[in-house]
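Researcher: Good morning. I'm working through a list of sequences from a screen, and I'd like to move beyond sequence-only analysis. For each chain I'm collecting a predicted structure so we can compare shapes side by side. This is the next one on the list. No need for commentary yet; just the structure.
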Amino acid sequence: MTSLDSAAKASAAAARYYGTSDVDAFYGTVWGGEDIHTGVYIHPHEPLAVASRRTVEVAASKVAGRLGPGSVVLDLGSGYGGPTRYLAETFGCQVVALNISEAQNERHRKTNAELGLDGLIKVVTGSFQDIPSPDRHFDVVWSQEAFCHSGNREELLSEAVRVLKPQGHLVFTDLMAADHTPPQALRPVIARLEVDGFATPAFYRQQLTALGLASVDFDDRSDQMLTHYLRLTEETRQRAKELQGLISPAYLQGLLENLPLWVEACRNNLTSWGIFHAHRP
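Model: Good morning. Structure tokens for this chain:
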């Protein structure tokens, strides 16, 4: 299979995954349908939504110097738009939200309009493998736990750098395998996400450096993953009765079987997560 075929296959899988009513209802109910990514926790029993929003705030603090009413941001894999809205509302910047799921995008646009942010945010349906924007257009390229769905991460990162202005910043989080983890070790864990495998922190460091970005930094928060998946497992079990009315029995059962695998993988230090930040010279 060529890299082009792999990217197309992964894009189709991501569109299918995030476009299903089961996935939509699960993220909307358990995560709150705003920030659907790993959280930064102050204490182990914090609500998922509170910790997930803290991740947005920490990541935004790394690029705050580039953000303001005159700046333009690209959010790759923007989901329901929680981070997009935070950036637009906090900094007054223009944000282009590129996301492959039209179901998520419809909710994103509706919420933006309700909050009066639709003048600052443009929601675009499309793939981040082929960003529909000119070269050197954005002050900041942002993403949270979307790159794991790419079938060609080298091409994706090249696209992200292509659209960065000189001195523009790239900041992203992603679900990753630890550098020492054999690829096959996580296959049962990640099967629910319909991805073939995860990148590693070493891969991202190498690729970002090869693309000419400067000051490549990885704020390693891998310890947060265990807390996050313990909370996610606990919340799903506690709300199983409520979820039965929203998602199919088969999907709920799959979650209850899969989430403990994530917990064990995190306990065994097979996973990695954190915030990457680099800038274009």
